[in-house]
Design brief:
CATH superfamily: Ribosomal protein L30/L7
Largest sheet: 5 strands, mixed
Protein name: Putative 60s ribosomal protein l7-2
Family: Belongs to the universal ribosomal protein uL30 family.
Number of domains: 1
GO biological process, one term: maturation of LSU-rRNA from tricistronic rRNA transcript (SSU-rRNA, 5.8S rRNA, LSU-rRNA)
Distance between the termini: 67 Å
Structural class: alpha+beta
GO molecular function, one term: structural constituent of ribosome
Radius of gyration: 26 Å
Helix content: 40-55%
Number of helices: 9
InterPro entries: Ribo_uL30_ferredoxin-like_sf, Ribosomal_uL30, Ribosomal_uL30_euk_arc
């Protein structure tokens, strides 16, 4: 009968695995608690933290640098604004720096709804927008998107404000409810109006929420503080904006 007897305990190997699992779970809990405590301390420090004088000096230097750059562009250059392309629209993405030293630049970014990093918008390609882009040039990348990129953004990242809540565009019924008064009843209608810069472009663009993208897959390949035409990232990149947005969606 002994050979049919059931052992009173699990084999040592199984006990070891279970013990390790329990230890790992306990360790994960402790790490999560530690991270949360650290996060709270950092937030508390930021809220009541003391800024060193060097921080204010650096902020002033950056603001002065931006002021001189804008002055140089507008007063000492024949090129007063970014070139207005043949395409009817710009696709603009803020790509760097959460904090901006210059109040003037900050105001322009807010006007274009580009307060956060990787926020992306459509804008009509005209002289006014081109001038604004010249002012905020080191903080944004822009170009002329293809219809494929416009469609991708609308389908994958398009959001509307519905009853006070942001909701992803999920159906043509939602679109008809939001844009029906403009004769827009489906996603392709939005894509067409945006891409062609139609007569309802401003109204549709105002009702669409800015697109919140991710950092590019594989990261930024060049320096963020050097212009695209000089081998960096910021500024106008024409049709090459498609490749960048494809890596961010």
């Amino acid at each position: 009968m002994e050979k049919y007897a059931v052992p009173n305990k699990l084999p040592a190997k199984k006990i070891t695995i279970l013990a390790r699992r329990r230890a790992r779970i306990e360790k994960d809990k402790n790490l999560a608690k530690l991270r949360e405590d650290t996060r709270r301390k950092i937030l508390q420090k930021k809220k009541h933290g003391f800024k060193k004088p060097e921080a204010f000096i650096m902020q002033y230097i950056k603001a002065e640098r931006d002021h001189k750059r804008i002055e140089r562009k507008f007063l000492h250059s024949r090129r007063f604004a970014a070139e207005v392309p043949k395409s009817p629209i710009f696709l603009i993405m803020r790509h760097r720096t959460r904090k901006v030293a210059s109040k003037h630049i900050e105001k322009v970014l807010e006007e274009l709804h580009l307060e956060n990093i990787h926020t992306t918008i459509f804008a009509r390609a005209n002289e006014k927008i081109a001038t604004m882009l010249t002012i905020i040039e080191p903080y944004v990348v822009w170009g002329t998107p293809s219809i494929h990129t416009v469609r991708d953004l609308i389908f994958k990242k398009g959001k509307l404000l519905v009853n006070g809540k942001l909701e992803a565009i999920q159906s043509n019924a939602m679109i008809e409810e939001a844009f029906g008064d403009l004769g827009v009843i489906c996603t392709e209608d939005i894509v067409h109006e945006i891409f062609t810069g139609g007569e309802n472009f401003e109204k549709i663009n105002a009702r669409l929420e800015p697109f919140h993208l991710k950092a590019p897959r594989d990261g930024w390949k060049k320096k963020l503080n050097i212009s695209y035409e000089k081998g960096g990232e910021y500024g106008s990149r024409g049709n090459a904006i498609d490749e960048l947005i494809d890596r961010c969606v």
